[in-house]
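Forgive a beginner's question, but would it be possible to get a protein, spelled out as residues, together with the matching structure tokens, please?
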Amino acid sequence: MSTFSTISIKIETARRFRAFCRETGGSNTEILELVLDYFQKYQISPRHKAKIDLPALDEKIQKRLNAIVAIIKEIEKTQTQPTLAMLQLLFDPAQATSVPSTRLPLPPTQERATSVKSKENLSGSEIRVYEEIKKDLEYILSKVIYDKRTFGPDRYVLEMAGEELERMKRKLNSY
């Protein structure tokens, strides 16, 4: 059998301790041993304040959560929605008009100021060059076809061999 000892403490402190023991459901000796074990195990001194500022910690966690939500929204906007639109077009091309466009707007083009002479003011050699360029342009335009695509926007494609295109570029640079 255990022997007991008395400790002199203030009456108000004894009342608080007994109320705490009733709330936690243990005897006075058990609760006091648990409290002492806790302080010794975690090397906590009851005289020192905790180094953790809970409101500041909560605020930091909330900021990180907001940042994570912003990242997820950005991923959803730039990756998930375009992929979903492509899959919808793949499985149901009739919905192509109902899928919202997720493409970025093209940057504005800068117009170059060039001086263009009228055909009447050209000399004989310039008219010959003009007719050759016009003929080459008509040939290139005849090689352009409209490509209606299942994935992505429709586009125009130049169906011309690479060597032929390079020849046309060299010819244009020679003028």
